[in-house]
Amino acid sequence: MGEPVFHEARAPSAAELETLLSRIIQRIVKLLTRTGYLIEEQGMRYLAEAKSDRALTPLQAAACTYRIAAQGHTQGKKY
Q1: From the CA atom positions of the chain, what is the Rg in Å?
Q2: Three-state SS across the chain?
Q3: So what's the pLDDT on residue 37?
Q4: CA torsion through residues 22, 57, 49, 78, sign
Q5: Which terminus of the chain has a lower count of CB atoms within 10 Å, N or C?
Q6: Residue whose C-alpha is closest to residue 49's, from 31, 41, 5, 39
C-alpha cells in the first residue's frame, strides 16, 4: 500500500451546509423521540418529563416547550 494522499476540496456552499444541518437535526430528533427523551403529540414534539428529585425540573421542561407548568385547569397547555 502507498502513502495516503491529501486532495484539497472546495468549501461547501451555504445551501449544502443548510441541507447537512437539516439532515442532522432530523436524525437527532428521531433518535431522541425513539429513546423517549422527546414525545410526539399531535404533530408537535416536546421534552419528556425528566425523572429527577430536583424541584425545578418540571418547570424547566415546561418552559422549554412553552407549556404551563403550574397545577390547575391550564396545566400542560401551551402559552
Answers
A1: 20
A2: CCCCCCCCCCCCCHHHHHHHHHHHHHHHHHHHHHCCCEEEECCEEEECCCCCCCCCHHHHHHHHCCECCCCCCCCCCEC
A3: 78
A4: negative
A5: N
A6: 39
